[in-house]
Amino acid sequence: MAIGLAITNLDEFTYGKSPKPIKCGRGVEIGNGRVIPEINFTLPPIDINPETWPEVLRQYSEMITGICERAVALGSSGILVEVETLPPMTVNPSWGVEVSRLVADKLDYYYEKRQLHSAFRLTPNDTREHQRPPRMRSGMYWDGMKEFFERSGEAGADLISIESTGGKEINDIALMDADVHALVFALGIIAPRDMEFLWREIVDSCKRNNVIPAGDSACGFANTAMVLAEQRMLPRVFAALVRIASVPRSLVAFEQGAVGPSKDCAYEGPYIKAITGSPISMEGRTAACAHFSSVGNISQAVCDCWSNESVQNVRLLSGYAPTVSMEQLEYDCRLLNVASQTPEDGRKMRDWLVASDSSHDPQAYVLRPDVVMRISKTMIEEDTPYLRVRAGLRCGLAEIRSAISANQLTLPVTEMKWMDRLYRQIDSLPNDETEFIEMMLPKLADAPWIPSEYGF
Amino acid sequence: MAIGLAITNLDEFTYGKSPKPIKCGRGVEIGNGRVIPEINFTLPPIDINPETWPEVLRQYSEMITGICERAVALGSSGILVEVETLPPMTVNPSWGVEVSRLVADKLDYYYEKRQLHSAFRLTPNDTREHQRPPRMRSGMYWDGMKEFFERSGEAGADLISIESTGGKEINDIALMDADVHALVFALGIIAPRDMEFLWREIVDSCKRNNVIPAGDSACGFANTAMVLAEQRMLPRVFAALVRIASVPRSLVAFEQGAVGPSKDCAYEGPYIKAITGSPISMEGRTAACAHFSSVGNISQAVCDCWSNESVQNVRLLSGYAPTVSMEQLEYDCRLLNVASQTPEDGRKMRDWLVASDSSHDPQAYVLRPDVVMRISKTMIEEDTPYLRVRAGLRCGLAEIRSAISANQLTLPVTEMKWMDRLYRQIDSLPNDETEFIEMMLPKLADAPWIPSEYGF
Amino acid sequence: MTDLQPLYEAILEGDAATAKATVQEALIESIDPQELLDKFMIPAMDEVGRRFETNEYFVPELLISARAMKGALELIRPKLADKGAKPIAKVVIGTVKGDLHDIGKNLVAAMLEGGGFEVIDLKVDVSPEQFVQTAKEQGAQIIAMSALLTTTMPGMKATVDAVNNAGLHDKVKIMIGGAPVTQRYADEIGADGFSENASAAVRLARQLVGAE
Amino acid sequence: MTDLQPLYEAILEGDAATAKATVQEALIESIDPQELLDKFMIPAMDEVGRRFETNEYFVPELLISARAMKGALELIRPKLADKGAKPIAKVVIGTVKGDLHDIGKNLVAAMLEGGGFEVIDLKVDVSPEQFVQTAKEQGAQIIAMSALLTTTMPGMKATVDAVNNAGLHDKVKIMIGGAPVTQRYADEIGADGFSENASAAVRLARQLVGAE
Ligand SMILES: [Zn+2]
Ligand SMILES: [Zn+2]
Ligand SMILES: [Zn+2]
Question: Range(s) for CATH 1.10.1240.10 in chain C?
Fold first, then answer.
């Protein structure tokens, strides 16, 4: 059963506004006209154990205090704060809850005393990949995750996200070999199965705890490809296709009940926004502290929250790095929000953000709002994740190819031969999903995964 | 003798373009249509001595290599690289020359092998303040500076700048007490005298060495006030006046032959550009790594180079901080340059940058291009730095006052009482410079300065 | 009898002339100087501190009040019994060797004085030996150092080491500050405290000498 | 006589079938296997390495060539005299305890193999004891560790310490890598080398065993 795009008019596909805005936390509205800064932060190198725990708490307190003080000083109209826990805090949820609670309490304090509007996104880890092959539906890692989800209310979360990893064990292989078939198996077959299992659990837990299920990120899949492409390990055009292939998988969270904002590092966000109408968080030039990219500006074009991805609590000349990020994000949002005071001007700004990056790199090109809408449309005309991935890859590669012909995109000479290689691989994907699965299972017999964990 | 503004039409007062563009270095043009990133970097905490010297060189090499690689990867059309030496490198110019040469050689390499356009701004320190009271015109510190200027060609510099400190010993006192008279004595009387002496020397040296004399920064005066205001130690409205008062002093460099680009941390740059027509470098949100500010966007409105001020070579999640800054600056410049493809659009972007900050803080308000032009005009109608400072302060405070009345600027309640205090102090400045000097000399009899070093 | 409320107001507003005049009148009328101090002057400075902490007052206002307080204090000090008139503690302060950036140090010095400390200001570019010798000679309870440059920070460690080697660290607490300085750095080099800014420095100094 | 240029091309293009077929034909014609290796196979892999270094080749191309090389090598190894056929050195590789991020480690492992090293891959979450024991048992010359998380980095130091305590550090060089790892960290914990990325890792490994 085909569904339609939530955003059908390119003029209405812009930053700060989404068809399904969200109210959350302490007076924050996302997707309702203004872009909100989303600030992330993490510990510098430190071993997490009972002995270092007081220092861990001190650092979180230092970080969130610096952030709130700066947001108040700049007169921010509201911030979204994300804590992505470190794995030991999900394995041992009591640690995760304690850190989260500390942050939530600070946000309460700044709301009451300094009128700082804020919401709190809590992102537990998908620790299931901490064993090889991963067990997805049972065992101590899954138990820890389930407990943490269940305690998200106690932890003070307003929103829950995750960067889940079901299928990553096959995706890793696909990336090393730039193997489209393995990629499609990972992102079109097994990842969506795990997403369905995982997000049903998360959404149920959110309902019980009055927390908003926000969304997932294909970080471990597509951002790994992006970073490898940035290091010239992988062709950029392949990384662009991995991004597209990750969309149907991330969409499953929304089919299960997630409502956004999609996670910052989910660069598939514009697709999610076009398809579902949910607001999205994005990151770009202000996330250079976390990773380099070729989508520093275009990633901002249709964002609803604007993030720094993650920064460690290291000292810079002015102060601690999280505070520095807070300032940069706030100024970026100010500019976007001033520009969008009329719809025409907002589109002008959006189009400049797009034009400044889109011709440099296929990964940027496939984030062009018009391209996103076209590819999204072909994807959702299909009914299953497998067919959506296949349709998206076909359409995406065709878009890239015609952009190159039209001189709207330049590709390094070294990548040109990849166009044909990738085309051949995509073209040979069968129509029938069962046929594809039967073709792939024997090839992946030695791979480090457990088929039964994905319902095989 | 009154002079006119170089920029008389507000429509032509915008970023990327200045009446007197500069060609320099390896194919770089500044102020000729495109904003250029200016990247700065410095050492993390390290003691500089003969033993650590190899490590110092390794770090500079690491920093400039990371920067150039990233600039190439992003397809930058050209970068300006600043090395602001650390004081031991000016005291011992051979060290400074060695570090500079290393950077210049790397830039040559990347120009030849990777076609990266670049220019190199060398900024020796004003080490004269390393003794109290400072000796401005003789002694080992001055000798070291002179030698370094003279060896700037050998060091590979394309441009020379400095953040000179003549008069800072009195300005420091003025800041602590928010004392307008002491401020005017520092910035209107003695600082200009030192600027004339210093910049005659620099310009002569540049001529002999075929290096461009770029400009000075009132960093030690006005940025100190800005940082103290940011820490709520000083009223913002006072810091805004310090900024205005610093203009006539920095102008002296241009009267002596400097041609720009003015230094990044010289937030008086827009005034310099309006008055002289020389291109300017500015810094804002991308300089949050160096200091926080309330002018993160508006500072960009009429810039020709866009800078990160300074960042230490510390490791972030993605890579080293200087490389991170390079990426952020390049994306910012991309956006500005895409937006300015028509003059109307460039002005639109400029006006958004202005509007996003100007109502939040008087320090931002006095960087509004129209305000800059009006204040600049009243200043240059006067003939001497003293009278220019007085005229600028009067006009600046009147601008702030009427902006508050017109609800174009909000001032914290705690600062309102300062409006009158500052007005009374400014109003009591005599017409006659000699009278002012005679009034001030006895008051400053115990201050840590040597009047004869300023020609008294 | 003199109305003493103006004394409180004068210190709060930084009006040194009125503060001194009021004190002098009160002394002529033989009002107990201890009462002047406890009921008006110290409460006024407490209120100044509170306003500064809550960002109602800026540094210039704090300094001018501190000067009015100092002027008034000089008048009553000779008449006072021991109690309450002594400074909380003696602080030797300066920027470390090689560092000439003193504006932060000056702020801290002024605020410590306003907060009731006796401050011995060694100014800038102070060697470890100078810190140690002065602290010893003056019987100081605190050494306060600042550095603005990362390149001069090692001077802090050198000073801590010198204090340790002189066997002085059981009598003197060491506090440090300045833009590049961190709590971690303080811990690393064995300093007793770090403060992020000038107002926190007074609180820290009080804690270090057990006055809070 | 078989034209051997296709062997060079096959390895360069990663065409394992052609590479093996050509080698088999050549062996039937009794062509000296050492000549196959020296004149065609090694030059082909050198060219692959050059192309990778200059960004003409990506990882997938490098891996596929390395596999073609490996396939061809397996055919001639039994026929070869000692010289040239032995791996440059044995490397024990893995991600450190607690760290499950192995894509970088896998890249390094593959590139080391392509570069002529014998790689013993302990996979992920490897304890210091496992590293030490395997290196000892296998007579490895290099231990290579990666960590992607700052929280697992201490596992590197623990492994270096374990190697030292086992008295093994004179026989085994230790190299480390991963996003948060730096040269300074390597120096600090006493590792012998750090590499910023997978291609630099092969060069580093060669340097560490004196093969370059
Ligand atoms: Zn992520
Ligand atoms: Zn400066
Ligand atoms: Zn600078």
Answer: 5-82
Residues of chain C with CATH 3.40.50.280: 90-208
Nearest CA in chain D to A85: D151
Please check whether residue A183 touches D, CB under 8 A: no
> Which two tokens mark C8?
């409180």
Chunked in runs of 10, what are the mean pLDDT values of chain A (456 residues)?
Answer: 84 97 97 97 90 95 97 97 95 96 98 97 94 92 97 97 97 94 98 98 97 97 94 94 98 97 98 98 96 96 97 92 98 98 97 98 98 98 97 98 97 93 97 97 94 94
- At B146, which amino acid appears? K
Contact yes or no for A171/A116 (Cβ under 8 A): no
Position B202 pLDDT exceeds 90: yes
CATH number of the C90-208 domain = 3.40.50.280
Contact C182 A315 (CB under 8 A): yes
Interface probe, candidates A34, A264, A292, A298, chain B, greatest B C-beta count within 10 A: A292
Cα distance between residue A39 and residue A27, in whole Å: 17
CB atoms within 10 A of CB B402: 11
Task: Looking at the CA of A163, name the nearest ligand.
Answer: 1
DSSP conformation letters of D125-189: SB-HHHHHHHHHHHT-SEEEEE--STTTTHHHHHHHHHHHHTT-TTT-EEEEE-TT--HHHHHHH
A73 CB neighbours in chain B (<8 A) are: 230, 292
A87 with D149: Cβ contact below 8 A = yes
Nearest-Å Rg of the Cα atoms of chain B is 21
pLDDT at position C2, please? Answer: 65
CB–CB of A172 and D103 under 8 A?
yes
Give yes or no for a contact between B238 and B225, defined as CB atoms under 8 angstroms apart. Answer: yes
What is the CATH architecture assignment of D5-82? Orthogonal Bundle (1.10)
Q: What is the pTM of this model?
A: 0.92
- Taking contacts as CB-CB distances below 8 angstroms, the residues of chain A near D64 are 177
Determine the Cα–Cα distance for residues B257 and A398; give it in Å rounded to an integer.
57
Distance between CA atoms of B279 and C173, rounded to whole angstroms? 51
- For domain B10-454, the CATH class is alpha beta
Domain-wise residue ranges, chain A: 10-454
Q: Per the structure block, which two tokens stand in for C54?
A: 């809550």
C168-185 per-position pLDDT tens digit: 999 999 999 987 888 888
From B318's Cα to the closest Cα of chain D, the distance in A is: 7
The per-residue pLDDT for range B292-320, each reduced to its tens digit, is 999 999 999 999 999 999 999 999 989 99
First to last CA, chain C: 35
The reply to whether residue C182 touches residue A317, judged by beta carbons under 8 angstroms, is: no
For residue B118, report the distance from its CA to the centre of ligand 3, in Å.
18
Q: What sign does the dihedral A331-A333-A334-A336 (CA atoms) show?
A: positive
Q: What DSSP letter does each residue of A241-278 carry, written as one string?
A: HHHHHTHHHHHHHHHTT--SPBPTT-TTHHHHHHHH--
Looking at residue A137, the DSSP 8-state letter turns out to be S
Contacts of A389 (CB under 8 A, 6+ apart): A184, A187, A188, A244, A245, A247, A248, A379
- Distance (Å, rounded) from C-alpha D153 to C-alpha A434? 43
Q: Is D32 helix (H, G, I), strand (E, B) or coil?
A: coil
| Rounded Cα–Cα distance for residues A394 and A247 (Å) | 14
Phi and psi dihedrals of D190, rounded to 5?
Answer: 85, 25
A292 vs B contacts (CB less than 8 Å): 70, 73, 318-319, 323, 327
Q: Which residue of B has its CA nearest to C157?
A: B47
pLDDT at C20 over 70: yes
Residue B120 DSSP label: E
**Residue B419, SS3?**
helix
The secondary structure of residue C41, as a DSSP letter, is I
The residue count for chain C: 212
